Amino acid sequence: MATQRTSFNKLQRDRDKQEKAAAKRDRRQNRASAGDPERSLKPVSAGDEQALLDEVEKLHRQFDAGAIDFETFENTKAQLLSQLPVD
User: Fold this and answer.
1) How far apart are CA 50 and CA 21, in angstroms?
2) How far is the C-alpha of 50 from the C-alpha of 61, rounded, in Å?
Protein backbone atom coordinates (compact mmCIF):
# COMPACT_ATOMS: atom_id res chain seq x y z
CA MET A 1 0.00 0.00 0.00
CA ALA A 2 1.08 3.53 -0.66
CA THR A 3 1.44 5.99 2.15
CA GLN A 4 -1.27 8.57 2.51
CA ARG A 5 -0.31 12.12 1.64
CA THR A 6 -0.76 14.96 4.08
CA SER A 7 -4.04 16.77 3.66
CA PHE A 8 -4.26 20.37 2.53
CA ASN A 9 -5.79 21.36 5.87
CA LYS A 10 -2.85 19.94 7.80
CA LEU A 11 -0.40 21.74 5.54
CA GLN A 12 -2.31 24.98 6.03
CA ARG A 13 -2.30 24.53 9.83
CA ASP A 14 1.45 23.96 9.76
CA ARG A 15 1.99 27.10 7.66
CA ASP A 16 -0.21 29.14 10.00
CA LYS A 17 1.70 27.84 13.00
CA GLN A 18 5.03 28.78 11.39
CA GLU A 19 3.78 32.27 10.53
CA LYS A 20 2.53 32.78 14.07
CA ALA A 21 5.86 31.65 15.51
CA ALA A 22 7.75 34.00 13.17
CA ALA A 23 5.53 36.93 14.15
CA LYS A 24 6.03 36.16 17.84
CA ARG A 25 9.80 35.93 17.32
CA ASP A 26 9.79 39.31 15.53
CA ARG A 27 7.81 40.94 18.35
CA ARG A 28 10.28 39.61 20.92
CA GLN A 29 13.26 40.85 18.93
CA ASN A 30 11.70 44.29 18.47
CA ARG A 31 10.92 44.52 22.17
CA ALA A 32 14.45 43.47 23.09
CA SER A 33 16.04 45.93 20.67
CA ALA A 34 13.87 48.79 21.95
CA GLY A 35 14.81 48.00 25.52
CA ASP A 36 12.50 47.09 28.33
CA PRO A 37 10.77 50.32 29.43
CA GLU A 38 10.12 48.99 32.91
CA ARG A 39 13.85 48.52 33.43
CA SER A 40 14.68 51.93 31.99
CA LEU A 41 12.65 53.76 34.63
CA LYS A 42 14.82 55.71 36.99
CA PRO A 43 13.94 55.65 40.66
CA VAL A 44 12.15 58.92 41.35
CA SER A 45 11.51 60.49 44.72
CA ALA A 46 7.93 61.33 45.63
CA GLY A 47 8.68 65.08 45.51
CA ASP A 48 10.07 65.04 41.99
CA GLU A 49 6.80 65.38 40.09
CA GLN A 50 8.33 66.83 36.94
CA ALA A 51 10.60 63.80 36.51
CA LEU A 52 7.57 61.52 36.81
CA LEU A 53 5.66 63.53 34.22
CA ASP A 54 8.69 63.43 31.90
CA GLU A 55 8.79 59.63 32.25
CA VAL A 56 5.07 59.42 31.40
CA GLU A 57 5.68 61.60 28.32
CA LYS A 58 8.60 59.36 27.27
CA LEU A 59 6.37 56.32 27.73
CA HIS A 60 3.69 57.85 25.50
CA ARG A 61 6.27 58.52 22.77
CA GLN A 62 7.46 54.89 22.94
CA PHE A 63 3.89 53.63 22.65
CA ASP A 64 3.08 55.98 19.75
CA ALA A 65 6.22 54.80 17.94
CA GLY A 66 5.13 51.17 18.40
CA ALA A 67 8.17 50.30 20.51
CA ILE A 68 6.01 48.87 23.31
CA ASP A 69 2.70 47.07 23.37
CA PHE A 70 -0.50 48.33 25.02
CA GLU A 71 -0.28 46.08 28.06
CA THR A 72 3.27 47.21 28.90
CA PHE A 73 2.24 50.81 28.29
CA GLU A 74 -0.73 50.59 30.66
CA ASN A 75 1.17 48.76 33.40
CA THR A 76 4.11 51.15 33.34
CA LYS A 77 1.87 54.21 33.18
CA ALA A 78 -0.12 53.00 36.18
CA GLN A 79 3.10 52.40 38.08
CA LEU A 80 4.35 55.92 37.30
CA LEU A 81 1.07 57.65 38.07
CA SER A 82 0.80 55.81 41.40
CA GLN A 83 4.06 57.52 42.43
CA LEU A 84 2.64 61.00 41.87
CA PRO A 85 1.73 62.68 45.14
CA VAL A 86 -1.95 63.56 45.54
CA ASP A 87 -2.77 66.86 47.25
Assistant:
1) 41
2) 17
- One-letter identity of residue 84: L
Short-list 83, 80, 30, CA closest to 60: 80
Query: Is 39 in contact with 30 (CB distance < 8 Å)?
Result: no
- Is 31 within 8 Å of 65 (Cβ atoms)? no
Instruction: Calculate the alpha carbon distances from 13 to 20, 27, 40, 56, 66 in Å.
Output: 10, 21, 39, 42, 29
Per-residue pLDDT of the chain (87 residues; tens, 9 = 90+): 566 777 888 889 999 999 998 888 888 877 766 665 554 555 555 458 888 889 999 999 999 999 889 999 999 998 888 887 776
Distance CA 44, CA 48 (A): 6
Whole-prediction pTM value? 0.45
